[in-house]
Write a structure and sequence with these properties.
Order of helices and strands: HHHHHHHHHHEEE
Number of helices: 10
Strand content: under 5%
Low-confidence stretches: 1-6, 269-302
Largest sheet: 3 strands, antiparallel
Number of strands: 3
Mean pLDDT: 80
Shape: flat
Radius of gyration: 25 Å
Length: 302
């Protein structure tokens, strides 16, 4: 059973109005696309000879696919690093120790405020000159910048996710003998991560898109290879369209995955917990059930 929370269910007149607006919007978008394609065709940009290169196998095997592999590699490393960074500093921001909380908060807010492009340029110079790393220095600069920025976003997601949990979760953990830190690690953060999974997947899309900023420091990713290949052939616009199509396909897939995960998470547990039922929480000695009156009993296997 679905329920409307923020808005009432639209009536027949409202549905007709929404349909009219959607149709008008679709016609405007189609007209805009037609105007762009007609303008490109008038300037000779839609001639088949300008697109032939991108239906050849050599173009993909020698340029586009290696660039895509580097893009996915950098994005994968940045995703793993962002999760680790976010967990460490997210827990730090939730710490009751004032020193740890302040230090983690300053670090998170600092990296959230610095533009990703600025960090990419900084880390490229820092790694090449200070650490004297010449092999894949551009890739590591991109990964480092993406980790610090997106890891700070993940840390803030974790902090807000834990704060949005019902207070009963922490109280139930403490009731069965968990400390504040154990309740945070074993009860609250796992639940917050599950609730934030759609938002995390959306942040992974941002990481994948931002990896294209490595073009500025000549990182051999998809956009760099596309520009490198097309510049001598005079079909840069066509290369950019092909590269954009590849990014759109990958990001659309991730976005649909986030939608599916969000729907499944929202449908879990709906209508399955009755009023007055025992709440189950995890503790060091296993699962225990907290009765409505506050007493605890071991959970029996059926």
């Amino acid at each position: 059973m679905s329920a409307s929370v923020l808005f009432d269910t639209p009536g027949p007149k409202a549905r007709r109005s929404i349909l009219v607006v959607n149709v008008i919007g679709a016609l405007v978008i189609v007209g805009l696309l037609w105007w762009i394609i007609a303008g490109l065709a008038a300037k000779g940009q839609m001639e088949p000879s300008r697109w032939d290169d991108f239906i050849q196998a050599d173009t993909w095997t020698d340029y586009l696919l290696p660039g895509l592999a580097n893009t996915l590699k950098a994005a994968a490393l940045a995703i793993v690093g962002s999760i680790v960074f976010g967990l460490i500093f997210g827990i730090g921001r939730l710490s009751t120790n004032p020193l740890i909380n302040v230090v983690c908060s300053v670090i998170v807010e600092f990296f959230r405020a610095v533009p990703v492009l600025l960090m990419i340029v900084f880390f490229n110079i820092f790694i090449a000159r200070t650490l004297e790393v010449s092999s894949n220095s551009a890739m590591w600069a991109v990964v480092a910048a993406l980790v610090f920025y997106n890891g700070s976003v993940v840390a803030e997601l974790i902090r807000s996710g834990v704060h949005n949990l019902p207070k009963g979760q922490r109280e139930a953990g403490i009731a069965i003998g968990l400390t504040r830190g154990q309740s945070l690690r074993l009860v609250e953060i796992p639940q917050a991560l599950v609730a934030m999974l759609p938002a995390l997947i959306g942040q992974f899309v941002v990481i994948l898109k931002d990896s294209a900023l490595g073009y500025i420091i000549s990182f051999n990713e998809l956009l760099f290879y596309g520009r490198t290949y097309s510049s001598p052939n005079g079909n840069v616009l066509q290369a950019l369209i092909v590269v954009a199509a590849v990014f759109i396909i990958i990001n659309f897939t991730l976005s649909k995955l986030a939608t599916i995960v969000s729907r499944r998470l929202s449908s879990r547990g709906v209508g399955k917990t009755k009023a007055g039922a025992a709440a189950v929480v995890g503790g060091p000695a296993g699962l225990e059930a907290v009765e409505p009156g506050g007493a605890t009993r071991p959970d029996k296997e059926e």
